[in-house]
Amino acid sequence: MGGVIIRCALPRLEKFKDKFHSLITLSSPHLGYAYSTSKLVDAGLWLINTMKKCVSIEQLTMEDNEDITKTFMFKLAKQPGLTWFKRLVFLASNQDLYVPYYSARMQKHEECILDCRNNSKKGLIYCEMVDSLLQDFKGEVIRLNVNFCIAEQ
Description:
This protein has 153 residues and is an alpha/beta fold. The chain has one domain. The protein contains 7 helices and 3 strands; from the N terminus they run H-E-H-H-H-E-H-H-H-E. The radius of gyration is 16 Å and the shape is globular.
């Protein structure tokens, strides 16, 4: 969640923007869980949210408003700040059981791209989110894949 929290804080830090250089995030759910690939995580999020309402889970699953364009994650994607950096570094792992890989890498999921082509409202909104995040960014974007392997002894 650290990367999401930093992005929330950026508009309040505008007076320091000339001092920003690199933003490095470690498996942050920048695009939420709308295209989650883990049924286990989806079930866990649903269970937690059903038993006790959790605002951050509602926001990350984009269920905090019936109109997806009024959700926290959509509004966050439109917020200024990322363009103030010279370099963005996103670390993600396919082995991460909690944060979707594409979300941590701040890029479109294959299913999202298909939904966009089929004019699905969810897909179109989601593609708009991804596009608006980096559309004006002129610096370097680095996406690093992390692979956790167990060394045999």
